[in-house]
Design brief:
Layout lengths: L1 H34 L11 E8 L12 E7 L1 H9 L7 E12 L2 E15 L10 E7 L13 H7 L14
Antiparallel strand pairs: 1-2, 2-3, 3-4, 4-5
């Protein structure tokens, strides 16, 4: 009888361990999935918020920003532009392309980078509810922001009156 109870307890213990391991694996996969790069598909078909051009020779602080800047917003972000209150799921994309000039005409060249803001208040409270990502050139898989957006948010804090978004939709 004691052997049977010991075997029964051992079976229950093994099942419990398997359940714990399965839950841990699932939790880890969800956590990793949240941190995976989220390149916004077809963002150039979203609402065009605006375009700016910084041509050389810019000031030394602006050299990295030289080029043609396009800003796009998904539908949720468009609603947030009106009030400055961006709902979770809002996405704002800042695409920087080379600015080419020929015969007095300025046109866009190759992509230099894509910066993405994704509103998710539950996971990114320390950065105003925004997740910040950066993709170099046409790489859509590797997020170049490695500090959870802290460096991005240091600057975006200046736009706290408008939901930490600099651009305006007029």
């Amino acid at each position: 009888m004691a052997i049977r109870n010991r075997k029964t307890r051992l079976i229950h213990l093994r099942r419990s361990i398997y359940v714990i391991l399965a839950v841990a694996a699932l939790s880890l996969s969800v956590l990793c999935a949240e941190e995976a790069a989220q390149f916004p598909e077809n963002f150039r078909r979203w609402v065009h918020v605006g375009t700016g051009v910084i041509m050389p020779p810019a000031s030394p602080q602006m050299t990295s920003e030289e080029g043609m800047h396009h800003i796009f917003a998904n539908e949720k972000a468009v609603e947030g532009y009106a009030t400055g209150n961006f709902a979770d799921g809002s996405m704002v994309v800042y695409e920087l392309r080379e600015a080419k000039q020929q015969n007095g005409i300025i046109f866009e060249g190759d992509r230099k980078r894509v910066d993405v803001m994704i509103k998710d208040s539950a996971h990114y409270a320390s950065t105003g509810g925004w997740r910040f990502q950066r993709f170099w050139k046409d790489d859509q898989a590797q997020n170049a922001v490695h500090d959870n957006g802290t460096s991005c948010f240091q600057c975006h804090q200046k736009a706290n009156a408008h939901g930490f978004v600099f651009s305006q939709l007029k």
